[in-house]
Specification:
It is a single chain. The protein is mainly alpha-helical and 589 residues long. The protein has helices spanning 2-48, 63-69, 72-105, 111-119, 126-137, 143-156, 172-182, 184-197, 201-208, 213-242, 245-251, 259-268, 273-297, 324-351, 369-375, 380-411, 417-426, 432-443, 457-481, 486-493, 498-527, 530-534, 543-552, 557-586. It has one domain: MetI-like (MetI-like fold). It is built from 24 helices and no strands. The relative contact order is 0.13.
């Protein structure tokens, strides 16, 4: 009798572990996401119906929506945003997919070196990148325009009015160019894992069946990679919609307004936080449509695209023949445009006593005085330590949370899992500036002010996790979708639990994508601008806050350039070391 009772109790415990364990785990993930995402979103919606500062409650009103959407300029702003984001995304995705195929699926020489080159642009903060291209392509004094005018005048006798042209960075084309180049690395990291994971036997079978190169790519390669490419396109599109630096520095002089600059001016110059909230809510509605499209087009068919199985998976590469070195030259050209030229002009500015155009005579005047002055800048050492904390905590927390969310969404049949995925993607629809304002409002109000989070680096980390969770879930969704569920099922048949199969089977297979996402988040956390600046206080300054203070308060271009160069060197070291660790651990060659 006692033996039977023990068996019954053991059976009940086993049933509870199998049933309650996953549900409790799911519940914890839901609570974390609701707190990180819905709280800022709720504050955004509430403040869109209020006037005045968000920390000071006021009566509800529709004035913000009436003021914003009865203005014809608002609809021109919306069209500018869509055109800018769509054009930049097409350019970004085309380049990134080409680079992912060349590095992972071909015999191009220097693939590992090219992979590393693609990570280096992460080291260039957005406002420094935009500033550098202004120095390079300003219609009057831009270095490249000066060179082009000289060549075109000398070779073809062309004349330019008042020493202007031939290129104009202050235009929609200039905005698209800057945003399209900057976004390549992010999209590359989103799709490269799927290129590596796809079984090339599918392509070989198509060729044996008589399919030609283009037919094989269209019906096999592209179809297998569709979830990753769709996710990358949607993420890049929303990223371009939220892009701030290029529209601010390049678009405004040309009178081009987009969502991000309109929200910025609504909160800073007017100020009208409620109007900014109204614009942000309409932005969120557009993002909701994209989330719905993504779920219908990609996630519901993930099993159709699972190509890693337990059956002799062996990656192969395509032979480029005489195109091997020209392909590698494409990477060099991109690296030159995205890193070498901007870094050169910033370095020249950092070394110049006072900024002037690069010239042979000025070389003798170059000095390190601005780098020495950085050491005397108040708070620089504390800001460096805070930046390291923000980098490590934000990257680790974001990728861990994203991995568990993606496993629930892609692998389980739990109710509400699609809403969970939509919730994480919706976080990207809230601009970083608005997220920061919402966190300030929450953690300055009782009872949450008693937690003591406001004014610390931890509130910066929480806001950045909210800001980056969309990217990492897109990466881990695509990676887990490539791993066939039969591997986890085999582990459970052998006696392992769901958590055991998740940790010991799925996680090692997606670790390259996991590590790549960590590097991306770490680099972006270091160079993040809007969130740390809005949440800045005496005790939580980061290096980006110091950089902005030097530029905004001191109006010191040369000092800003010097700190920017230090920024870039530090991030290059981070990305290079991270890449080497991935190569050594996972044999990514």
């Amino acid at each position: 009798m006692q033996t039977a009772t023990r068996k019954t109790q053991s059976s009940r415990l086993s049933w509870m572990r199998q049933r309650l364990g996953p549900n409790i785990f799911f519940g914890v993930i839901v609570i974390i996401l609701l707190w990180l995402i819905l709280v800022p979103l709720g504050q955004l919606i509430l403040n869109s119906f209020r006037t005045g500062h968000p920390a000071v409650p006021s009566e509800f009103t529709l004035d913000n929506y009436i003021t914003g959407f009865l203005n014809p300029l608002t609809y021109k702003m919306i069209w500018n945003t869509i055109f800018f984001a769509g054009s930049g995304t097409l350019l970004t995705v085309f380049i990134a997919v080409l680079f992912a195929w060349l590095t992972e699926r071909t015999d191009m020489p220097g693939r590992n070196f090219a992979w590393t080159l693609l990570l280096v642009p992460l080291a260039m903060p957005g406002f420094l990148f935009s500033m550098a291209w202004i120095f390079l392509l300003d219609s009057r004094v831009g270095l490249l325009n000066i060179v082009l005018r000289y060549l075109l005048t000398s070779l073809f006798g062309m004349e330019f009015e008042a020493g202007t042209g031939p290129l104009n960075i202050y235009s929609m084309t200039g905005m698209i160019f800057i945003d399209g180049i900057r976004g390549v690395t992010t999209v590359f990291l989103l799709v490269v894992g799927s290129f590596r994971a796809m079984d090339p036997n599918l392509e070989e079978a198509a060729r044996i069946a008589g399919a030609k190169g283009w037919t094989t790519f269209r019906l096999v390669t592209f179809a297998s990679l569709k979830p990753a490419i769709i996710a990358a396109f949607l993420y890049s599109f929303i990223s371009s919609m939220e892009s701030f630096e290029a529209p601010l520095l390049v678009g405004l002089p040309a009178g081009i307004y987009v969502y991000s600059t309109m929200i910025y001016f609504s909160t800073r110059l007017m100020p009208s936080y409620g109007l900014a909230g109204a614009f942000s809510v309409s932005y969120c509605l557009m993002a909701l449509f994209l989330v719905y499209f993504y779920q219908r087009a990609a996630l519901r068919q993930t099993e159709r695209f699972a190509t890693i199985t337990g059956k002799g998976y062996r990656p192969r590469v395509a032979r480029l023949g005489k195109w091997r070195w020209p392909a590698f030259a494409i990477f060099i050209a991109y690296f030159f445009l995205s890193v070498v030229l901007p870094l050169f002009i910033l370095t020249w500015a950092a070394l110049s006593p006072a900024y002037n155009q690069p010239n042979w005579k000025g070389i003798g005047d170059l000095t390190l005085i601005h780098f020495k002055r950085l050491l005397d800048e108040p708070g620089i050492l504390e800001a460096t330590w805070n930046t390291i904390i923000v980098m490590v905590v934000t990257a680790t927390a974001t990728v861990l949370l994203s991995f568990f969310v993606s496993w629930i969404v892609v692998r389980t049949k739990m109710r509400g899992r699609m809403l969970l995925d939509g919730l994480t993607f919706l976080a990207h629809s809230i601009p970083g500036l608005v997220i920061a304002l919402a966190f300030i409002f929450v953690y300055l109000q009782p009872p949450f002010n008693s937690l003591g989070l406001y004014g610390t680096v931890w509130i910066v980390c929480m806001a950045l996790v909210t800001n980056y969770i969309a990217f990492t879930t897109r990466t881990t969704n695509a990676a887990i979708a490539q791993v066939h569920k039969e591997l986890e099922e085999a582990a459970r048949i052998a006696g392992g639990s769901r958590i055991t199969s998740l940790i010991r089977i799925t996680l090692p297979l997606v670790m390259p994508a996991f590590a790549a996402a960590w590097i991306w988040v770490a680099a972006h956390a270091v160079r993040s601008f809007s969130v740390p600046v809005m949440l800045a206080s005496e005790n939580n300054w980061t290096l980006s806050v110091i950089l902005w203070r030097i530029w905004d308060e001191q109006n010191a271009l040369t000092m800003s350039a010097a700190l920017g160069v230090v920024f870039i060197i530090a991030l290059v070291i981070l990305t290079f070391v991270g890449r080497r660790l991935i190569v050594k651990t996972f044999s990514v060659e």
